[in-house]
Amino acid sequence: MRRYVWLSASLLLLAPVSASAQLEPLGAPKGTLRIDIGGMFQSADRRLLDGTGSDYATDFGSPALGSDRIPLLRTADSLLALALGRPSYHLNLGFEQSNGQLTFGTGVIGIALGVTHRLTLFTHIPLVTSRVQAHFKLDSTRADGGINPAHPTLGNSTDQALAGQFFGQFDAALTTLDARITAGAYAGNPQLQALAQEILARGQQTRDALQGATTDPATASPFLPTNTSTAGQQLVNRIRGLQDTLSNVLGVAGFGGDPVLPTDRLSQQNFASVLANPAGPYALFPLQESRISRMGDMDIGATYTVVDRFDRDNKVGGFRLAAQALLRLPTGQLDDPSNLLDVGTGNGRYELGLSGTADLGSGRWGARLSGGYLFRFAALRVRRVGPFDQPYLTADRLTNVRLNAGDVLQLGARPFFRLTSNFAIMGVADYWHEAAGSASYPAASDSVPGVPAALLASGSGSTLALGGGVTYVGRATGECQPGHHCGFPIDATWSYTNVFWGRGGPLNQYRTTRLEIRWYQRLWR
């Protein structure tokens, strides 16, 4: 599942120039230390894919769970289709209902120092708690699959022995039939000769396919049709038909018994146990709540105020422009590729952001306009390689991958209306666009045969978030005159936004609440 770690509390492209604030200075005044304290809560229980909404955990569910979500079952489907003589057969494990929610709770501690009237240096350190809650419910009423009781690692010794005995007799019968054909036992009867050859070919195909799906360590399926399902009964009848023809028509005795098939349909608990079995093909963490509380990706950078004629000389409004550059460091914790629900607190790569912010105003009305571009550099990651909509990937897909996430363009507009000189209400509009990314194997030894690393490449996507908020700006940040009361030496902003539109993706449909407080302390003049 593709998950965007949209850690807006680290203030994305505009770290010290908060993307949701209004009116506060874009940098710190000369000789002033600014302490930034921020809090953010983001949640997403929906996602958008090409404009269509669905549950956050939709990729884990299916109306007929099988090879559509579990790539390993593609081989099983092919083998079972051969064994059944049904080219279109697909194993059905049941209706898997999946619901989930992703939340981020973030606190940001930052320091900005006004070096000159125009230049401010800053750093921001986010402390992040990422949490994924998910609920899964498997209804196998109309399913035909259960756990393979003779699987080399998931099965039990008794059924493994029975399967070994079954295939041993199957092999012996086919060997005997082949020897009889070669010896000319049916040469005097052309119809019997043709039947023997047809039974030999069909028997070998059925044996190879069924053995491959049942006990072969390289191809054995964790799941097979139950013995009471339509597919299971067809398979049993097909084997019994071969046994009858071999014994009563072709004179080859000694092959009896039914194939070893599961007796019970798959349950949610059974499915979870297969995924979490450390000796099985998946070796995953249990599908339950995932929670991480760690440091996020830290930002360092500088803001340069190009023009500052905003709220100057006792005039309300004016114009202000600042440019900024930041470097994002990979100090956060990455997600665990063996935990399908895990979302880390950082992106694991270096990022370079360049942005600009302009304030325009006249009287009570005004707007803050911002734009930025985030260069995201390639990074080496350990991943299970597969498409985002097939989350149940086996451990043999786990390998080193070089991921190059697409760069990000962000545009923002915050129109505001001043209720007083220090307090304003504002609207919020944020446009976010990610270019298509790429993925490759760093070395030939890292490649997964037949599975291109490009399956992990992020696709292009765009979102539009809308909302509103309020802001307070103290006048003691640099404009106080001796003997005059100027207000508290703080700035504060609260805002709420919701992603209303998106294309490409998949993209999490975040609801975001932010609170930011900036406190100023004069160090020198």
What do you see in this structure?
The structure is a single chain. The protein is an alpha+beta fold and 525 residues long. The protein has helices at 73-84, 157-182, 190-214, 230-249, 268-276, and strands at residues 32-44, 46-49, 52-55, 95-114, 119-139, 145-147, 223-225, 290-295, 298-310, 317-329, 351-362, 365-376, 379-384, 398-404, 408-418, 423-434, 438-440, 461-473, 490-504, 507-508, 511-522. The strands form 4 sheets. It has a 12-stranded antiparallel β-barrel with strand order 1-4-5-9-10-11-12-15-16-18-19-21. The protein has a 3-stranded antiparallel β-sheet with strand order 3-2-20, with no helix packed on it. A hairpin with a 2-residue loop joins strand 11 and strand 12. Helix 1 (73-84) runs antiparallel to helix 3 and helix 2 (157-182) runs antiparallel to helix 3 (190-214). The chain is elongated and about 115 Å long. It starts with 31 loop residues before the first strand and ends with a strand. The relative contact order is 0.18.
